[in-house]
Design goal:
Order of helices and strands: EHEHEHEHEHEHHHE
Distance between the termini: 30 Å
CATH topology: Rossmann fold
Oligomer: single chain
CATH class: Alpha Beta
Structural class: alpha/beta
């Protein structure tokens, strides 16, 4: 598929490592002007060393006001990927309010915050746009020790649908993707144990976890004009896990 984002200003959150990092690099390769947001400066330094055209933004998404300020400073934004996420894993009975607040602050509240700033600007400019939220198969299937994480991704999916409903009349499309396990640093938190990993793989019809590029490719498609009639969708990238 021949896709170009030339002339487009693109914001990717959680771009310091993992899926966000590879997505930022790919979008820059496709000639987009990429703004990469992360709270970890050393990760941003590494990213910019790989592609100096990428503009780094260092901010903690848990800080509502600081986040709004830095996002407003890089407007206008044409395309947005809310990728930043955390995973605090524990049995349900051991879940803490601190873990709940951290997870929902990053996985849900920050998406609301960043998207409000970007979408308001899109509406004022009458430019339209595309927003992709990185959800998870965990939004639709309960996973042991993932009570807070699953809850946050379920909330994110419903937020995505309401965003699509309200922003669609302004020609702003909002979709979410739901990857299965990807062995990024966050993925290793829950699935580095071979026995536990095999228990998950055995439930995936394709018999393996996803590669980072297999998540990046669908996001690229949803950002592009090739998906111009897709709005409010949840695209599972799970090898058939949710089909079982």
């Amino acid at each position: 598929m021949n896709i170009s984002f030339e002339g487009k200003r693109i914001l990717v959150t959680g771009a310091g490592q993992g899926i966000g990092k590879e997505l930022a690099l790919r979008l820059a390769k496709y000639k987009g002007q990429v703004f990469a947001l992360s709270k970890t400066k050393k990760h941003l330094d590494t990213l910019v060393a790989n592609d100096p055209k990428i503009q780094p933004i260092c901010v903690d998404l848990r800080d509502w006001d600081a986040t709004r300020k830095v996002v407003q400073n890089v407007l206008p934004i044409d395309l947005l990927v809310n990728n930043a996420a955390v995973a605090c894993l524990s049995p349900f009975l051991n879940a803490t309010p601190e873990a709940f607040d951290l997870t929902f602050d990053v996985n849900v509240k920050a998406v609301l915050n960043v998207s409000q700033v970007v979408a308001r600007s899109m509406i004022e400019r009458k430019s339209g746009g595309s927003i992709v939220n990185i959800s998870s198969q965990a939004a639709h299937a309960a996973l042991k020790d993932h009570s807070i994480y699953c809850s946050s991704k379920g909330a994110l999916d419903m937020l995505s649908k309401v965003m699509a409903l309200e922003l669609g009349p302004h020609n702003i499309r909002v979709n979410s993707v739901g990857p299965t396990v990807v062995m990024t640093e966050m993925g290793k938190l829950g699935w580095s144990d071979p026995q536990k990993a095999q228990s998950m793989i055995s439930k995936i019809p394709l018999g393996r976890f996803a590669e980072i590029d297999e998540v990046v490719d669908p996001v690229i498609y949803l950002l592009s004009d090739r998906s111009s009639m897709i709005n409010g969708a949840f695209l599972a990238i799970d090898g058939g896990f949710l089909a079982a």
